[in-house]
Amino acid sequence: MEQKAALAGILINPSLRLLLEQIFAAKVDKWREVWDQKGGNRNVLWGYIEQGLGRRVRYREYQGWRMRGEEIKDLISPYVALDSYSPAQNPLIALPFMEETGALDKLQSEYGTDFTGALDQLIAALAAARFNGFVEPLNGLARTMLTAYADYGRFWMAFTECRVPLDEPFSISVSEKRMVDVKKSSDKGLGLAKMKMKGQVVGPISYSDAKSSQVGLRIADSNVELGKQWSLKKDDARGGPPDLPDSVAKNSELLSFYSSDEHRPPRLTLTCTLRPSGPIRWIYRLVLCTAVATLFAITLGGSLILHRFTTGHLALLLTPATFATSLLLVRESSPLSTTLTRGLRLVLVWLLAIVWLVTALLYVNKKLFITEAPVKPPKPSPTIEQVGLVKESK
Questions:
Q1: Closest by Cα among 265, 268, 244, 248 to 257
Q2: CA angle, corner 178, sides to 184 and 18, nearest 5?
Q3: Backbone phi and psi for residue 233, each to the nearest 5 degrees, phi listed first
Q4: C or N: which end of the chain has fewer Cβ atoms within 10 Å?
């Protein structure tokens, strides 16, 4: 990073180097958890900083930091896609980490002020690089420096030391496993849109860190399979689709593609749809149809088809639907499958509740007749005269 900045005409002093090291090494696990839970609250970052620093931060002080963080984000926005978890785009995310390592006290003593002085120096360096990006012959080098700054703040960089033979051919293979985010389908609306058993897996991938790249997405859960739709998007400000890979192989369990193009983009975002396996989808559909048919039979069948709707008819209708729905709702399944079927599970719960509510209303309104078993008359006991007649007949 420092070498790229020097080639672009930007001087990095020891204080700025310390700030950059803290930004690139900052751990964002806690911030990611806080943002996922309370991202809609505009003061979520303020509370996160106060908790990390262990002291109260005045609103005026926080506003000064926030405005400078927005300025840094605007300076590098043409070179990187928006990322709410990146300390490079918003150095305030790294403040708790700097407090933990003791770097924050060093920076404050160096500038004689609070964190504002360090942010101002970072803004000056990025603004100079942004200006040099339009000046020959530094334009390409300055843009490379800005892109590197944005990338180092978003990804962990792995370095490997290898011993290679000099007198014979050799090859180096690098493999990497990443965690991916699973999101529910973004379909909006009511009714059938909410009952779609679909999800999306979204993950960043390194695409040009070797001579050739082979990327694979594998599903190890037997209850879930890959959907038909998948896409690749460049991880930059424009976010357009890249050139097609050299080869693609895909089935319900594995998506794999390979490329050796020298001009392929360094970062890609892979998106692929997920869905429950075929038997699980058909079971849910069958139970849903059974519940709907039961509700229709109770509400309309009693008055239109049957002249007298009795508890015997009700038991015949409710037993299969209730048993099947209850068994499906409480059955053990994987967490991933549960995430994909959450919407349909909620619909089944509401249907079952409506069925029993309609049943209670029918009973209260005396439209449900209770069937009683027919009582057989008792056999008459034999009398003395009848016994005597029997004896005379013999």
A1: 248
A2: 115
A3: -140, 140
A4: C
Length of the chain in residues, anyone? Answer: 394
pLDDT beneath 70: ranges in the chain: 1, 7-8, 39-40, 111-113, 133-139, 153-159, 176, 178-181, 184-196, 209, 236-240, 301-333, 366-394
CA end-to-end span of the chain: 125
**Phi/psi of residue 97, nearest 5 degrees:** -65, -40
CB neighbours of residue 388 within 10 Å? 10
Q: 51-85 burial string, b = 16+ CB within 10 Å, else e?
A: ebbeeeeeeeebeebbebbeebbebbeebbbebee
Pairing of strands 224-234, 254-259: unpaired
pLDDT attached to residue 112: 63
pLDDT of amino acid 85: 83
Residue 298: HSE in the Cβ half-sphere, 13 Å Cα cutoff: 28
Beta bridge partners of residue 286, listed in sequence order? none
Say which DSSP state 300 is in: I
Closest-CA residue to 91 (of 58, 110, 109, 64) = 64
β-bridge partners, 249? 256
SS3 for 378? coil
Task: Read off the amino acid at residue 196.
Answer: K
> Rounded distance, CA 257 to CA 247, Å?
6
Confidence at residue 9, expressed as pLDDT on a 0 to 100 scale: 73
| CA angle in degrees (0–180, nearest 5) for 148-151-157 | 100
Helix or strand (DSSP H, E) at 262: none
Beta strand pairing call for 213-218 and 254-259:
antiparallel
